[in-house]
């Protein structure tokens, strides 16, 4: 009897110390944890981990592309050597390397020895690969690491010339710049309790995705008539820069499917961005819709890492309660630790802010002011009827304009490079053999490639070259000269060299072709052809290596050496 009374008194004492509304036996030391824990809305500890890993993944792909292709494109013997470009910048500002030259083209290469530019480019890419791999695998990052990634990639973009002239390069730099301020200064903890994610930085990411999507939608409405007629998707899958196998089948969809696709595109780019400002649930819906939209675009074409990158700022739309399903439950896990942080904050048990926290807040406020100031010309451009897309208003590319496919090509044309060993290129019996690129259409029987998020920069530029004449793209004659010498570096950018293990061709020419998808069930498809092509005429006339000697010398390009 005495034992029962003592037990009753003990339970009453425990319940007296419980918080109001808590069930019996659930006092302050008995909070639910582990698999039964449900995170509260409004914190972004897990959001930061997911966002940084997603950003690191895109950085990894970008540096991988750079490592594999920079030597061939901008290296010592590249198609557009960056050493020549930096010299031209230096000459333009009339003197040694000074602030004007550095601010015009900010890059670490100004500080390095130009006599071994291939090694410099490899070093930048390899360092970027190493740092991005660490962040991707561990989920740990600090300002120093993220700033390193940003400076390294900016150093490549600003000497990449036409090969790095696309909107996703500036978009990665802007996203990466914001990523620097999402992290603590030095700590590499995945959950640095002293530095919670800043709301200013999170809104910086949301402001970025808002401008990306709205800019893309407005440039379409103001651009090609087919976006207003809802007919653009009748052509897009066939004429996009680098189609994939799925695009072949999507192109065959009924007309009403294409109308629905175009309307959906307008809704997602012109209406959904405003969901960001309508509270937590609508913001979450915005993030989910935009990520789903980008996933569809990834499936339907090879658009480099653009769509993967566009997903990154959308992650800032989700709080810890939304992203909790991505993390395992259990005592001591990230979810459990975040739950404890939330409970401490709810009880007011967090320590008072230290001096370092105050400095950090001041830095974030300064960042917000900077982004707002740099956004002024961007917003003016968005509202302008003469809107331009994918433009930077500052050399560091911190805040930029964006847009995609403001105009849609209705016919697909391709430049096919051919070589011949014949002594006379003009004789009817000359046998011309095609070079095949890694991914762009060539042989009508070759299946379209599937490479996203990887990116073949030369293939992409060949798509643009087909719209204009070779005089607008002088690098294509540089490529022809290298093919005439069987240059191994340049040929590594191609999938097929018809003169492999043979003497190099005596002549190389460019032919212009019109390409269309074959019709499923038709004669060409039955013969195993994905494409039907028709010759339009010459793109550039047959050239030999001696013909190009003066052309190379006038541009300070290394003259190819015959093997």
TrEMBL record:
The keyword Nucleotidyltransferase does not apply. GO terms for biological process: protein maturation. InterPro entries: LMF, LMF1/2_C, LMF1/2_N. Keywords: Endoplasmic reticulum, Membrane, Transmembrane, Transmembrane helix. Residues 1-33 are annotated as: Disordered. Residues 398-541 form the Lipase maturation factor 1/2 C-terminal domain. GO terms for cellular component: endoplasmic reticulum membrane. It is a multi-pass membrane protein. The keyword Acetylation does not apply. It is found in: Endoplasmic reticulum membrane. It holds the Pfam family LMF1. It comes from the Eukaryota. Residues 164-324 form the Lipase maturation factor 1/2 N-terminal domain. The chain crosses the membrane at residues 45-67, 124-152, 291-309, 362-383. Its main location: endoplasmic reticulum. Belongs to the lipase maturation factor family. Involved in the maturation of specific proteins in the endoplasmic reticulum. PANTHER family: LIPASE MATURATION FACTOR (PTHR14463), LIPASE MATURATION FACTOR 1 (PTHR14463:SF10). This is Lipase maturation factor. It comes from Neovison vison.
């Amino acid at each position: 009897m005495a034992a029962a009374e003592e037990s009753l008194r003990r339970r009453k004492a425990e319940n007296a110390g419980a918080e109001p509304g808590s069930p019996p036996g659930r006092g302050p030391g008995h909070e639910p944890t582990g698999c039964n824990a449900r995170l509260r809305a409004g914190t972004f500890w897990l959001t930061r981990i997911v966002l940084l890993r997603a950003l690191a993944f895109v950085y990894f792909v970008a540096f991988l592309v750079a490592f594999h292709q920079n030597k061939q494109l901008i290296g010592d013997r590249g198609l557009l050597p960056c050493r020549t470009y930096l010299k031209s910048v230096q000459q333009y500002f009339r003197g040694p390397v000074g602030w004007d030259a550095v601010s015009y083209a900010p890059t670490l290469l100004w500080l390095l020895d130009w006599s071994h530019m291939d090694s410099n480019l490899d070093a930048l890419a390899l360092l970027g690969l190493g740092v991005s791999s660490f962040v991707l695998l561990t989920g740990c990052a600090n300002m120093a690491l993220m700033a390193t990634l940003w400076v390294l990639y900016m150093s490549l973009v600003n000497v990449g010339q036409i090969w790095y002239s696309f909107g996703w390069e500036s978009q990665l730099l802007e996203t990466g710049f914001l990523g620097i301020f999402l992290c603590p200064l030095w700590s590499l903890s995945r959950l640095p309790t002293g530095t919670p994610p800043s709301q200013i930085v999170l809104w910086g990411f949301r402001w970025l995705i808002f401008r990306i999507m709205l800019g893309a939608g407005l440039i379409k409405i103001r651009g090609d008539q087919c976006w207003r007629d809802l007919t653009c998707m009748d052509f897009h899958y066939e004429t996009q820069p680098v189609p994939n196998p799925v695009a072949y089948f999507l192109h065959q969809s009924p007309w009403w499917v294409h109308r629905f696709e175009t309307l959906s595109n307008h809704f997602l780019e012109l209406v959904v961005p405003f969901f960001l400002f309508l509270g937590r649930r609508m913001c979450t819906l915005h993030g989910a819709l935009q990520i789903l939209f980008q996933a569809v675009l990834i499936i339907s074409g090879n658009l480099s890492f653009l769509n993967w990158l566009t997903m990154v700022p959308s992650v800032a739309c989700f709080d810890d309660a939304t992203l909790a399903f991505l993390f395992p439950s259990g005592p001591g896990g990230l979810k459990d630790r975040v739950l404890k942080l939330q409970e401490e904050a709810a009880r007011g048990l967090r320590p008072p802010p230290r001096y370092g926290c105050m400095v950090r807040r001041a830095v974030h406020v300064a960042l917000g002011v900077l982004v707002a100031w740099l956004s002024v010309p961007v917003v003016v451009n968005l509202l302008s009827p003469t809107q331009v897309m994918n433009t930077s208003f500052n050399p560091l590319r911190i805040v930029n304009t964006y847009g995609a496919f403001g105009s849609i090509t209705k016919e697909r044309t391709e430049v096919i490079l051919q070589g011949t060993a014949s002594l006379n290129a003009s004789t009817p019996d000359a046998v011309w053999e095609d070079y095949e690129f890694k991914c762009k259409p060539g042989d009508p029987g070759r299946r379209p490639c599937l490479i996203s998020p990887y990116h073949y920069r030369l293939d992409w530029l060949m798509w643009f070259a087909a719209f204009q004449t070779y005089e607008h793209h002088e690098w294509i004659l540089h490529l022809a000269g290298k093919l005439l010498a069987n240059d191994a570096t340049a040929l590594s950018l191609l999938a097929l060299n018809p003169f492999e293990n043979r003497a190099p061709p005596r002549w190389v020419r460019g032919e212009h072709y019109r390409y269309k998808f074959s019709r499923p069930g038709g004669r060409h498809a039955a013969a195993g052809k994905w494409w039907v092509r028709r010759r339009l005429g010459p793109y550039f006339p047959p050239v030999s290596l001696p013909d190009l000697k003066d052309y190379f010398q006038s541009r300070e390009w290394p003259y190819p050496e015959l093997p």
